[in-house]
User: Fold this.
Amino acid sequence: MAAEGKGRRRAQTLLGAAILLVLLVLGGMLWVNHQGDDLLPQIIEKLPENVDLGLERVHYSQNENGRRSWVLDADRAAYQRKEDELSLTGVKLTFFNAGDFGELRLDADQGVLWQKQKRIRLQGNVRVRTSRNQTFETEWLRYDFSQRLLTTDALVHLQGRQLELSGTGMVLDLTRGTMQILHNVHARLEQDDPKGAPQ
Assistant:
């Protein structure tokens, strides 16, 4: 009986140590500001095989050349090691230097981040807002971190101060600060009259 009690205590201690290890790894993954080119710290590689993690309130910041480049926030995240992907819910992604667009803020219902491929796909009520008071809306969007390109094949609607634009497919280059609508483009331009009322 005493041996059984000792075995149970040993199993509980080992389980507690394993949980503590996962929490320490997770804490390092979520709070460290990584200086390299990888999207997530290499600490993920230290997790044992077949370990899947469910996370609440994810916050990740990427620095480049000593300056904050982008920040990713999500209400929930689930990491699947086998597929090497992080599934996100309630996503907010902010780029602090998006060329002529200035600061760029993306919101989406869901997303999937692939660390090794350096890509993220956002879907569901995707909204992109620029510091020039422009808003892009689409159903899904992907971002290539190495090329700094936002692309989609879906319908896109742009609303600016005096311009309303819609079409199918978009390429938004964060380095150059340029945006292309690829097909079926419709535009409406409003001009202010001297009294300030739109015409």
Summary: Residues 31-37 have pLDDT under 50 and may be disordered. The first strand starts at residue 52 and ends at 64.
